């Protein structure tokens, strides 16, 4: 036997609607998690990643024992958290003798692990260790520039994947309209060697250049770190094909009442409904029917004087 | 010219504000960390500039907050977060309507009601042709005697609603199979599919469990008085006090501006005493019941004797060893 379950409050219903699959998706949320052991470095990396991503991220503060996505059965708890928080990117930090300062980045598709890449963190410099003009500090949730340099991102399989994951992690919401004054941050990733990537976060100074396009200067605001690629897992081919589908691939709806011709350009038909002049009501107070202000004032005055007279007579 | 060459070298995705330079190589292994960082940042500046060159040349609309440009859709293809919404399968009725060529028509929300000579809503409260508005149902030849036509009508309506609900559930089940349930609906199994028609026995609720626990606690010699209470355990429901002692002093009852003293204790005892000392005191005795009681007692005595014979006698066992000795 089956039972229909529906949300009891309007808010619950709205939340479920937000979480439902959409034709056009705007942005992915990030889930940030700790392993059983985290070094000070990894903890601060997670913390600062959360600060950078604020507004589009959820950070869990408890330690998680049974998250081992590379092993079979180790992703159940992660998938549950993804379902619970509606996040589809995760960053999982851990620290062990075998893999010191470990950061595991991954993506989910339909709340199942899509791909994974594991990086070690070296030469970490915290947000706090940078000194700069605080006016430059990027605003929360602003759209970043993302730069990749180095041929490694084009040739090496792992770095290719890392590039995709970092893009997905940092790009934030996909927007139609952008305020140009709101551009204040950039992420710079450069492949130093086939396994190592230098990542830093910069603020942007827009300087006058004499043209429309301002001259751009970057000021490092941190955090900055080296990412050393360790293990990775590529997405399943079938899942990848499924996940790459967009609403664009579908045929468009036929446009009605619009014609295109080479000579006349675009033209359209407009259907205007009958006006029904006989049925329309006149507005209650048309100008002709209104008493004029002056008249009303006069009348008031008369009444006022009359009452005064009455008072006097009394 | 510079801009064009830049764009040829760099791969720029304005929708994501992303730029990629696949040809950059470090001239020589940088000697210090600082050099490396500076090299990376200068390279990054070039890339950001390349994106900005495109971005700031877009037509913009001025607002009080600053110029706003329209971004093109991103070109880098990234995986979706969730699957594309799946089309909903047609319901049974939709299938039927398609086969028969029945088309949807718009109906007015408000309809003229002949009974009341008014315009009324088509559905809901105070609707057109509402059965509840009809105070009299004319008798028909086919009516069965002794049947309430109003109750019958309610019953039929309930049946119809039940059937519709069943149909709806079936349609939802088909939709769930296609993965196209509306986002706010979940289907949950109420019983195991193996057990079939029978619903699972209901689990004891929180209240009921508490009651049972309280009852179980009284089963010790002290009636659970000295037992340790579990967290959340409730005291047993009925706790002692069967005898009600009436107040010895009289209480006053107000009756039509007079205070009448009422001594309940005195009244009660008086009632009992008057029954005993009254002239017809023998009448309070239920003679039939008394006879029955006496008879029962007699029979018990008789049967008691007979049952004594069946009981093993202690004397026999005691005597037995003596006989063996002899």
Question: How would you describe what is shown here?
Answer:
The complex is a heterodimer of chains A (314) and B (326). Chain A is built from 7 helices and 13 strands. By secondary structure, chain A is of the alpha/beta class. Chain A has a domain at 27-243: Brix domain (Rossmann fold), CATH 3.40.50.10480. In chain A, strand 10 (196-207) and strand 11 form a beta hairpin. Chain A starts with a strand and ends with a helix. Chain B has 326 residues and is α+β, with helices and mostly antiparallel strands. Helix content of chain B is 40%, strand content 12%. A two-stranded antiparallel ribbon of chain B has the order 1-2. Chain B has a two-stranded antiparallel sheet with strand order 3-4. Chain B has a two-stranded antiparallel sheet with strand order 5-6. Strand 1 (2-5) of chain A pairs antiparallel with strand 7 (186-189) of chain B, so a sheet runs across the interface.
